[in-house]
Amino acid sequence: MAGHMSPCSSSSSSSSSAMTFSHATSSEFHKSLDKFLVFPRKTPESSWVSRIRSRNRSRKSFQLKSSNEHPVSSVSLHDGSSLAKEHSMPSVKESLSPVNSESEKFESTYSITVVGASGDLAKKKIFPAIFALFYEDCLPKNFTVFGYARTKMTDEDLRTMISKTLTCRIDKRENCEDKMTQFLKRCFYHSGQYNSEENFRELDIKLKEKEAGKLANRLFYLSIPPNIFVDVVRCASITASSTSGWTRVIVEKPFGRDSESSGELTRCLKQYLSEDQIFRIDHYLGKELVENLSVLRFSNLVFEPLWSRNYIRSVQLIFSEDFGTEGRGGYFDHYGIIRDIMQNHLLQILALFAMETPVSLDAEDIRNEKVKVLRSMRPLQLEDVIVGQYKGHSKGGKSVPGYTDDPTVPKDSLTPTFAAAALFVNNARWDGVPFLLKAGKALHTKRAEIRVQFRHVPGNLYKRNFGTDLDKATNELVLRVQPDEAIYLKINNKVPGLGMRLDRSDLNLFFKARYPREIPDAYERLLLDAIEGERRLFIRSDELDAAWALFTPLLKELEEKKIVPELYPYGSRGPVGAHYLAAKHNVRWGDVGGEES
Ligand SMILES: NC(=O)C1=CN([C@@H]2O[C@H](COP(=O)(O)OP(=O)(O)OC[C@H]3O[C@@H](n4cnc5c(N)ncnc54)[C@H](OP(=O)(O)O)[C@@H]3O)[C@@H](O)[C@H]2O)C=CC1
Ligand SMILES: O=C1O[C@H](COP(=O)(O)O)[C@@H](O)[C@H](O)[C@H]1O
Prior knowledge:
By secondary structure, the chain is α/β, with parallel strands linked by helices.
């Protein structure tokens, strides 16, 4: 069975000292925002580069922009102290636009090594995201991509494999073929075992060849099952970390399966890496609408005053997929939907939603606020959770499989493929407000959204016109994370004409209509942030601990008591129990009934 954490000593063949990887200085993320210029990250290439160049010419400073436009590891020639500190880690944009011989001296190289390059995630998401960054001219001049896995492949085989999943931006497609060819020339492959220092040493030699003596920054993306994370980090740290620039490691979830295993994983990783070097990815934090949540809230006066128990009746975070665990049943059965979606993606959104205003957009300020929210929540109780599992059925000559029909899933599996839960943030702002989380596979639709249901209007003058069901007149703010990103607010208005008939309408910001260009994939944003050293969208270890503390007792209880999930048909709206759970907290799910626009 996949997924058991190996203790860090498991296959360690040699001892090593802590923090073998070299890492960026902490000053990287302690700069104040207003010290720097602000550039939009994605403007067309010519204007973007020329803007940087002209600013650099006039101010002699380089700017590196991460997803919050916060210059993270920039080098300012105005600031002697930061110059001295950070010469060892020039920024991406710096190497994009060398402007004087001083900077030429420090020209740096960047490599991204995708460990587990033969796998599903690498093919589907990571290589396409790196290419998209290249296509958008967001990558530095000197960059190399390496694939690493056990599968025997040549460089050419890797290129053929990844070329099948590369796509150019829908709204551009200019020079697409050329760009792909240029990109593929930068891609190389090394076949090796995950626990072999020798094989990583060979990788190091190949990396050094490409780096050609320049200052080298290395990013490792661990796109592998979690039971080999520590082996890889150990081997790479001992034999393949950069000795001149930074070394960073992106770790894919799952980060453990409960508090203990997660703590153990963190402890093991920290034998070889400092916290600054670990980039725990939760790709939902890279989604456009999740990014927009804080903007909506903190840059519009109309929302923030309403953002509390005084006006908000419930917050609903909903994830549904219209397919089952096909092909991933073996992995999934060890985790279940609560660990796969709720404890990370939905909880992260909840923390961003509920946090207090951070001191600044600095990663540490934001993550401090998120941790406070998580630590203000009471651990989940069994009575506030319902679990379900999809079953197969046949309809009109077509049959769909149940979860346990998957040959890699035990026939008597009790693993939930659906869960709904009510969580509470016990602080002054949110006391008593249910945060309803719902996540499920093999449901009737694919969707992720944040629904904010406001309280009923007190002493409503128009009560008569709404009829008896006041819930139907409740204002609701919806952030549709996917598909068809949108932000809309349900309001009540008068139907034009004589008489007084009320209607419910949407004030709608539909992103495709407003911004008719493709929205970057979450992995693009996150990869760029990792290259640029922006940690805001990555999970800090104390956040992770707090998240597991909320779910671990419940997960244990579910397993110990062998709670049987409620069966629901593949393609349905999920177990009825979810409605009882909402009703218990005096609310209704916003995504059911005629209201789900
Ligand atoms: N796929 C997805 O959509 C998502 C995946 N993730 C996470 O990302 C990581 C990678 O996912 P994914 O690509 O699906 O994983 P895969 O199962 O496809 O594994 C990736 C690669 O790791 C190697 N590998 C697989 N199993 C083992 C094993 N038991 N021992 C040693 N090596 C093994 C294989 O390469 P080789 O045999 O060539 O060495 C494989 O190609 C996982 O941690 C997963 O949980 C997170 C979110 C979504
Ligand atoms: O992390 C995961 O996410 C995917 C859903 O991601 P999305 O970006 O396509 O919404 C989910 O299918 C998978 O089970 C889970 O591990």
